[in-house]
Design goal:
With about 550 residues, the chain is mostly helical. Helices cover about 70% and strands about 5% of the residues. The protein contains 23 helices and six strands. The protein has helices at about 10-40, 45-60, 60-70, 75-95, 100-105, 135-150, 150-165, 170-205, 210-225, 230, 235-240, 255-260, 265-280, 290-300, 305-315, 325-340, 380-385, 390-430, 435-445, 445-455, 460-495, 500-520, 525-545, and strands at about 110, 115, 130-135, 240-245, 250, 520-525. It has a four-stranded antiparallel β-sheet with strand order 2-1-3-6. Strands 4-5 form a two-stranded antiparallel sheet. The longest helix has about 40 residues, at about 390-430. It starts with 9 loop residues before the first helix and ends with a helix.
């Protein structure tokens, strides 16, 4: 529908708003489909590292990037760029202010002597001063965010210079072309450099955001009955097997202790964290679990075993023969169970002699829950439960690419009309399309980041608040590199003019303020009140600078 063809009256405005809400909802659903589809790939360890550290951040920026792209492709591209800049500025500023403040509020604990107290009583947040601790990763994330924001200056400096010389729009556009190319190159250098940095972190399990997403996705899909525990960890254990003459894999004999020791540190940490999630749901508070509780544990992880086989598992898990299996025994024993069953068996009930000789058990330190306790649970579908682990992985691949593909198609199809609607709405209410896009576009494209960061922070741990804030910083870095690179390309290729000095100043000042706050030892509620004020202050700053004559 061409929004300009709608009646120029109240009825036409209602139709325009209907289109706006409809397109916004489609983009919101499409953004979630891209996110959900890509996160399914986290269940495939062979690609999980690159997906969590590189693919997910990029796909999260796709909706904003498409709005930016289509704002510069139409016949009136120079005017429509206001919509693209509004989406970019609104997304960047909104992400590191409102969701940031909500995350700190959700994750607040007592603060004593300028230190956050992450104890049971401290998490009640009933003290005189409450807040959260900033980790070294958050401080580093703030610095990286500011470094990537340098790209704005490459184009903004020449824009101010040409305007000061009295050049018109066409002359400014012509003079900026070479600078736009330089800015594009710098954006791409920052973009791939950032992705490479995140990928390197993921290799050493230092990428907290990627690791958290990986573990949470496994938990969610097990809870929702989409995959079994064996299916989720199939490729983690396949390398401990060797091919036979008929190209089928048979397990290489190993004790549980040997197998546990040979797992990569990242896999051990993630595996233990996931098992702890299910353990906490079953454990009654005693030293360990009994046979019936072990059965409930396996059922909750979609592992169907016969009663006879379960009794055999329990005896071999219970190394000290005290009638209970403690958490360390459960973790190392389950490792052996998965290895024995992940390659050639489709159901634990059909395997025999599945556990070898057991050495003295070893487990990790108590950690934090990797997933949400309130995930929706469902029974394992019969068609999936009966599949071999490798077939489950294949199904997940198909589902992932189908979901991502459909979401991407929807984003591409509806970003262009969304841009037209935002521009037309600004014209009809006599407000610059920049302000309309600044406020409304992020609600469609970034709502999922707001919800995810808030839910992570609610766990009230040092790690969860660090992950929540780092994710928001990462989203800002994607806007500074991926989305801004699209702008630079449009200006260079189409000969458009960058006339957004006020908007650029607001974006850079906002990021500088949040980067400074990231360097604090703690963030208190006073700090958060300041963060909330930054959002409307940026809008007011843009309006004030434009009123003063700055473009």
């Amino acid at each position: 529908v061409d929004p300009g063809s709608l009646p120029q009256d109240g009825y036409g405005l209602c139709q325009l708003l209907t289109l706006l809400f409809g397109y916004a909802y489609v983009l919101y659903v499409a953004s979630n489909m891209i996110s959900d589809g890509s996160e399914l790939l986290l269940l495939v360890p062979s690609v999980a590292g690159i997906v969590g550290s590189c693919v997910l951040p990029v796909l999260g920026a796709v909706p904003d990037g498409m709005i930016v792209l289509f704002s510069g492709l139409g016949p009136d591209a120079q005017q429509q760029l206001d919509v693209g800049v509004g989406a970019l500025a609104g997304s960047t500023i909104m992400l590191i202010t409102l969701p940031w403040a909500l995350s700190v509020y959700a994750g607040r604990v007592d603060v004593e002597h300028n230190k956050a107290v992450y104890t049971r009583n401290g998490k009640k947040a009933q003290g005189r001063v409450t807040g959260v601790a900033n980790s070294d990763s958050v401080r580093k994330g703030g610095l990286i965010m500011m470094v990537t924001a340098v790209s704005y200056i490459i184009l903004q400096g020449p824009a101010v210079y040409f305007k000061s010389k009295g050049k018109d729009t066409d002359q400014v556009a012509q003079g900026q072309k070479s600078f736009a190319l330089g800015g594009l190159i710098l954006c791409l250098v920052f973009f791939f450099g950032y992705l490479y940095y995140q990928w390197r972190l993921s290799l050493n399990a230092d990428n907290e955001v990627a690791e958290q997403r990986h573990a949470a996705m496994i938990i969610r899909n097990i809870n929702q009955g989409r995959v079994t525990l064996r299916g989720a960890f199939y490729y983690e254990f396949q390398k401990f097997s060797q091919p036979t003459a008929d190209l089928k894999y048979t397990p290489v004999p190993k004790s549980s202790q040997e197998l546990w020791d040979e797992l990569p540190a990242a896999a051990r940490k993630r595996f233990e964290s996931i098992l702890r999630h299910f353990w906490r749901k079953i454990d009654s508070g005693a030293a360990g679990v009994r046979l019936d509780e072990l059965n409930a544990l396996f059922t909750s992880m979609n592992e169907r075993v016969s009663q006879k086989y379960l009794e055999d598992i329990f005896r071999q898990f219970d190394v000290d023969h005290n009638g209970e299996v403690d958490f360390k025994e459960f973790v190392v024993g389950t490792t052996q169970y998965l290895w024995k069953n992940s390659v050639h068996a489709t159901d634990g009930a059909t395997a025999s002699a599945l556990l070898g000789e057991e050495d003295e058990r070893q487990g990790g330190e108590d950690g934090e829950d990797a997933g949400e306790d309130d995930d929706e649970e469902g029974e394992m579908p019969d068609d999936l439960a009966e599949l071999k682990p490798e077939e489950q992985q294949r199904k997940l691949f198909q589902r992932s690419f189908t979901t991502m593909g459909l979401g991407t198609i929807l984003v591409v199809l509806f970003s262009d009309p969304m841009t037209d609607v935002l521009g037309e709405l600004g014209t009809r209410i006599n407000v610059s399309p920049f302000y309309v896009s600044f406020v409304l576009a992020p609600l469609a494209s970034n709502a999922s980041e707001l919800i995810a960061s808030y839910k992570y922070a609610q766990k009230k741990t040092r790690k969860s608040i660090s992950i929540s804030l780092q994710a928001l910083q990462g989203a800002a870095c994607m806007n500074n590199t991926f989305c801004l690179a699209i702008f630079m390309a449009l200006i260079w290729l189409k000969g458009l003019a960058w006339e957004f000095s006020a908007e650029t100043i607001a974006i850079v000042i906002c990021q500088a303020a949040i980067a400074g706050i990231s360097c604090f030892q703690v963030q208190t509620m006073t700090t958060i009140a300041l963060v909330v004020c930054i959002y409307p202050a940026c809008l007011a700053l843009v309006a004030g600078l434009e009123a003063a004559g700055l473009d």
